[in-house]
Specification:
About 10% of the residues are buried. The protein is α+β, with helices and mostly antiparallel strands. It is globular and about 35 Å long. It is about 15% helix and about 30% strand. The chain has 1 helix and 7 strands, in the order βββββββα. Strands 2-1-5-6-7-4-3 form a 7-stranded antiparallel beta sheet, with no helix packed on it.
Length: about 120
């Protein structure tokens, strides 16, 4: 007997916010969305568990943010600390080591090209 579902199964929410179409973003640079704001960011620190960056708007502990690293889908994270315009965030799911290494390489290449100009 075949299983029959009267309605299609659906996820409870979107997997990631729509990050495409943001103006002035470079696909080889990290991009952050928090609340209503979104922009390219310079990461001061990146690990497989989280990141630190400057963010111009006040965020509270526990606020959800989305970080888009080059070559990867946007990843959800939570603000774990904030000080002035700096935030520290922990990824909801730890980055796989291979994806982490790939992102570091792309970011480093993009930074070298900026330094040469």
């Amino acid at each position: 007997m075949a299983n029959h579902h009267p309605e299609p199964l659906a996820l409870s929410g979107p997997l990631s916010p729509p990050l495409s179409g943001a103006t002035g973003t470079d696909p080889k640079r990290p991009f952050l969305r928090a609340g209503r704001g979104s922009e390219s960011v310079k990461l001061d620190n990146l690990s497989s568990r989280g990141f630190r960056t400057d963010w111009p708007n006040k965020l509270a502990l526990g606020d959800s943010v989305w970080l888009k690293l080059p070559g990867l889908a946007a990843m959800p994270a939570k603000v774990t600390w904030e000080l002035d315009n700096m935030i520290g965030c922990t990824f909801d799911v730890r980055l796989h080591p291979a994806l982490y290494a790939q992102s570091l390489e792309i970011i480093a290449d993009a930074q070298r090209s900026v330094d040469l100009n």
